[in-house]
Amino acid sequence: MVGNWRSTWPVRAVDDGGAAMILNLVRYGGANTSSSIWQDLVLPHVSLTSSTPISDDIYRSANYTYAIGGLRPLLDCFVAPQENLTMTMWRDVGCRLVGNDEEQDCSFKRTRVTLRRPEGCEGHDTDGTFSFGTATEGRGAFEAPRWVGRFLDLNTILTGFNASCPTIGVLFGQMGSNDTSDWNMTALVCTQGLEQVPVTVTYTGNPSLREINEQHPPKLELEKAWRWVNGTSKSKAFGYQPGRFLDADLTPFPINEPDTRTFDEDDDPFFDHLLHGPNRIERESLLGPSNTEKLIRAVQRDYSEYMRHVIDLNFRANSSNAHDDLNSAKALPNARPSSVATEITGTTSAQVTRLAIHTTSKLLLQILLGLMALLSLASYLLVKIDGTLPRNPCSIASTMAFLAGSQLCDRDAGIIPQGAEYMTDGRLKEAFDGWVFSLGWWQKEEASVESEEPNDGESTLGDRDVPDEAQEGQRTPGRFGIDVRRANVSKF
Question: Which residue windows are transmembrane per the record (predicted)?
């Protein structure tokens, strides 16, 4: 769901929702800019619907990407011709300066701008013009130059269809000595507007937390942006009056090194922050006809910063807004919202752990396995397998495997005498002397015992046996190991 915009913030609003106070805190380091403000764009609020499957893992790791319409303020300014500036100076006797109730002689320096009103733009003047100006005062002759900076709300009203009516006036420069021809003043006349920009935003975790993925910053489609139209005048110009809120809530920055300044300064809060705030600009770089573009960019920058807070606090739709007051927060210029929030679709992605095969390691492993197979085949072809023991005969397990099933393990055969485990090596040698032990294949039915010294009158089992060739043709090997007498097959 994306929260829609409302377009009914009053031109002459009673308050700005605390925007100027928040801006003041941000510039003094006492607060952070809202997470809904990204660079010069204000993003609508996005939240998941109740039907969206969510979990703690999704909140922490999933990325949600949406195409939405963000708002950004515009300030179009042009430089008033010098012939439209009237600069005067006069003296007054018995006046009281600001902050001093004592009557004294004082002087006033004033700059006033008079311009023709555009068609569809009305003001208090009845001769088809509108004007604005400022004055500064000083003691006595007041011959010393003075820096002046003013950001002013103009008393103009939009009345005509599609009119471009200026609503902001800016005066900046140096009021010099008593000779007004030496003064160097620049006047700007500005028109306010709002632009909705399609933007693709990727949030990390729940979009309601408004944590933008830094690896995927928002992508603006400036070529598809469109300007809002004033619902009353059908103009793309808006007549907001931010100057009075800035004058009331911006706290002047302290002057750290007053002795380094050549001229006195008379700046309103807007210019005080512009010249002495965290993003300060040297006033000399803004002075004169050659620096008008720099002055325009500086004014637009600080105006836009303030209006972003105004939009964030005052332009979000709520349940009390009428249907006609809503503007869609979709990335489409012709979308018509029917409620405070509109359901939109987006994409979600999450990082998951998976097994990845390293190409170099895989290749090395394949080469090693191929070499192993090749060497195994070569050893099978080159080594005489029929003369090789299948296992190491020196281990206890292999020794027992060779003897298992033989007559040596048969107590009735009488080959191993009783108590042989306690005999010495010499006695064991005497006990086994005369027996024939062989390693090879044995038949299961072979149970006779053969000695190298048979008794007289008796023939040994070996004498009665058929020749080995006949036995090999009649029997198949049954057990490979050690036994008494000669084995049928000595190979395995």
Answer: 363-383
